[in-house]
Amino acid sequence: MKQPNMIKLFSIFFGLWFWFNAFGMQQIAQAETAITKYSNTIKTEYQYAAKVVCSLLLPHQDGSLARGTYRTAVNIHNPTNKKITIAAKVALATQFGSEAGPFSVTPFKGATLQPDGAVEINCFDIAGYFCPIDGVCVDFAFLEGFLVVKSPVPLDVVGVYTARHTDGDVESIDVETVKPQQIHDSVKLGAAEPAKQGEGKRIDYPPKGSPAYSDQKPKQMCGGIAGFLCPEGMKCVDDPADNCDPAKGDADCAGICVK
């Protein structure tokens, strides 16, 4: 008679043990889910607004700047001894008094900086923030605005600006240290949405036929560090008009789409 009672008692203890462990695993799974969701949101204390001026496919010729080719590279350095996550977005400069369009401000993208690590964001990276947004990619002939960087710790942010005539070597260079603003904010990072060939809609900025193009025909950018794809039926070739030549070992050269 004692043996069945022992088996029954053992069964009760085993059932309780299984229930507590299952409940604990459920709590752990919920905690992991919460962590995954939270990883898309970061708390920031400092904001940097670095000016960007980029001639991507055509020289600036809309009257806002002198006609020429402009490039911007923003360098970001983590001076701390710990790994951090920062967020960045691009805000286009629009005409004063005009309404902001659907692509005036991009979603935030996140980046991890190692202790004492640094990263560079150039014009083609900046253009990549606009592809895709809600399934639409923007092909810029040139753009002007701000790269807005938010961080939980103070950073070293430096903008490097070069300019030249439509043909030739660099004629002007300027380096500017970007000062921070202290701002307490929680930033939601946009989900990565890779562009696929033949999918989505592409628009030109400025629109084709705009007076900004003068008598030049706009080209469609492809390749580069952002890896822009061409529409179906077109292929990406090196742009002979720029001074970046992959045949000479240059890296991350942007190309143009041709039939």
Describe the fold and architecture.
This protein is α+β, with helices and mostly antiparallel strands and 259 residues long. It folds into 2 domains: 41-212, Hypothetical Protein Tm1070, Chain: A (Sandwich), CATH 2.60.290.11; 219-258, no CATH class. 17% of the residues lie in helices and 38% in strands. The chain has 2 helices and 14 strands, in the order αβββββαβββββββββ. Strands 4-3-7-1-10 form a 5-stranded antiparallel beta sheet. A 4-stranded antiparallel beta sheet has the order 5-2-8-9. The chain is globular and about 50 Å long. The protein starts with a helix and ends with a strand. The model is unreliable at 22-38 (pLDDT under 50).
Task: Describe what is shown at a glance.
The protein is of the alpha+beta class.
Widest sheet: strand order?
A: 4-3-7-1-10
How many domains, as an integer? 2
Mean pLDDT: 77
CATH class of the largest domain: Mainly Beta
Number of beta-strand segments:
14
Gyration radius (Cα, Å) is 26 Å
Q: Please work out how many helical segments DSSP would assign.
A: 2
Percentage of residues in strands: 35-45%
CATH architecture field of the largest domain: Sandwich
Poorly predicted residue ranges: 22-38
CATH superfamily of the largest domain: TM1070-like
- Helix and strand run: HEEEEEHEEEEEEEEE
